[in-house]
Amino acid sequence: MAALATMITSLRELVRSIESSASNIAASSGELSMVTSQIATASEQQTSVAEEINQNITSIRDVTDHSAASSKQTASSSSELARLGSELQNLVFRFRL
User: Fold this and answer.
1) Any idea where the domains of the chain sit in the sequence?
2) b/e for 69-94, b at 16 or more Cβ within 10 A?
C-alpha cells in the first residue's frame, strides 16, 4: 500500500510538472507569436520605405534628365545667340563703312 501511495504522489508531481511545462510552452508560444508579428510589421514598414526611396530616386533621375536636356538646349541657344551677335556686329561694321 505504501508503494501505491508513493506512486500516486510521484504521478501527481509528474502531472504538476507537465502542467507547469505546458504553461511555460504556451507562454513562450505567445511571446514567439508576438515577436513574429513585430518582425512582420517591421518588414512591411521597411518594404514601404524602400519603395518610397525607389520612387524618390526615380523622380531625381527624371529631374536630372530634364535638367541635362535643358542645359543642352541652353548651350545650343547660347551658341546660336553668339553667332547671331557676331553676324549683327559684322552687319553694323559694314553699315558704318
Assistant:
1) 66-97
2) eeeeeeeeeeeeeeeeeeeeeeeeee
